[in-house]
Amino acid sequence: MRQRPTAIHRFRSPGAQRRLLWVFLLAAACALAATQAAGQDLRAPAAPSDAPITVTTRVRHVTTVVLPESESIVDVVVGDAEYWDVSSAAHMAFIRPLFEAARSNLVLLTASGAVIPLLVVEDTEAAVDAVVRIQPPGRTPTPETAGPGPVLTTTLAVASMAQRAVEAWEEAEEAEASATGRIEAARTAAQEALDSRREAYPRQLQFDYRWAFDAEPRSHPWLVDGLWHDGQRTYLRTRATSPVLYEQVNGVLAPVRVAAVLDEVLHVVPRVLGRGALEANGRRIAWTVERREAGP
Question: What pTM did the predictor assign?
Answer without folding.
Answer: 0.38
